[in-house]
Design brief:
Layout (H helix, E strand, L loop, with lengths): L1 E9 L2 E6 L2 E9 L2 H10 L4 E6 H6 L5 H11 L2 E5 L5 H9 L4 E4 L1 H5 L3 H9 L4 E8 L2 E4 L4 E6 H10 L4 E6 L11 H7 L6 E5 L5 H9 L4 E4 L1 H4 L5 H8 L1
Parallel strand pairs: 1-4, 1-12, 4-5, 5-6, 6-7, 7-10, 10-11, 11-12
Antiparallel strand pairs: 1-2, 2-3, 7-8, 8-9
Length: 238
């Protein structure tokens, strides 16, 4: 299992939200590159970088910061937030980003994920399924859709999407533990690569997730509060 240390960006700063609430934001680093370099020193291969302003309103508000992190660390980077057309995907990939994460647009435009995979390849595209009460949330978690999360996962997999990032919003930023049942249920699709996100609080969570043999796990607030040592998590996940 791969470990994806997370950097959430707002106004060029590394921040974390509590349960996706933009009014409940903590700033952890005014210079996110410093955090990214720490992750590199811990042995990380990938970074998970999200533009929270983009997720909320669309656009690429933190594009330059993300590309600077990629170039200065030379780590693999998957990024998302406000990516709602093929031109933005192309811009990120041409600038060196390794994988682009689709969120709201993959829900509101039923053909978007399929077209993205067709144009750029399955390895370059991930879809984020943010789950609230078994339904998909959109627009930076501010709105609920009427799509069942599990049926939506099946739909995008049939469209060619292989990488799915699943976040239980009720646990994100809460340090209450990963929703293991959610990831078990999503794994019923043979060949899908699940990246777990939300609520990871301890090394025991990493052990449990690795035991599910999922593709990856994102570590966010647990690192920033000192609850998880990234190097230890990477060693255990291997």
């Amino acid at each position: 299992m791969l470990i994806f240390p997370a950097i959430d960006l707002f106004d060029g700063k590394a921040v974390r939200l509590f349960k996706g609430d933009y009014e409940n934001m903590t700033i952890y680093d005014n210079e996110p590159l410093n955090t990214a370099l720490k992750f590199k020193n811990f042995g990380a291969e990938w970074l998970h970088v999200i533009d929270l302003e983009g997720a909320k309103t669309g656009g690429c508000k933190n594009f330059d910061t993300i590309i600077n992190i990629k170039h200065e660390t030379n780590l693999k980077v998957q990024t998302g937030g406000g990516i709602r057309d093929l031109k933005i995907i192309e811009r990120y990939l041409n600038s060196g980003v390794d994988r682009v994460i689709l969120g709201t647009a993959a829900v509101t435009d039923k053909n978007f994920a399929r077209e993205a995979v067709k144009n750029f390849g399955a390895d370059k595209i991930a879809v984020s399924i943010d789950v609230k009460n078994n339904f998909v949330a959109i627009k930076g978690w501010l709105e609920n859709s009427d799509l069942n999360a599990f049926k939506f996962c099946e739909k995008i997999f049939n469209d060619g999407v292989e990488y799915v990032i699943s976040t239980d919003i009720s646990r994100d930023g809460t340090l209450t533990g990963a929703n293991l049942n959610l990831y078990k249920d999503l794994q019923h699709i043979p060949g899908i690569k699940i990246i777990a996100s939300g609520g990871v609080k301890s090394i025991d969570d990493i052990k449990d997730l690795a035991g599910l043999k999922i593709y990856g796990a994102i570590i966010g607030k647990a690192y920033y509060t000192g609850a998880i040592n990234i190097k230890q998590a990477i060693d255990i996940a291997k």
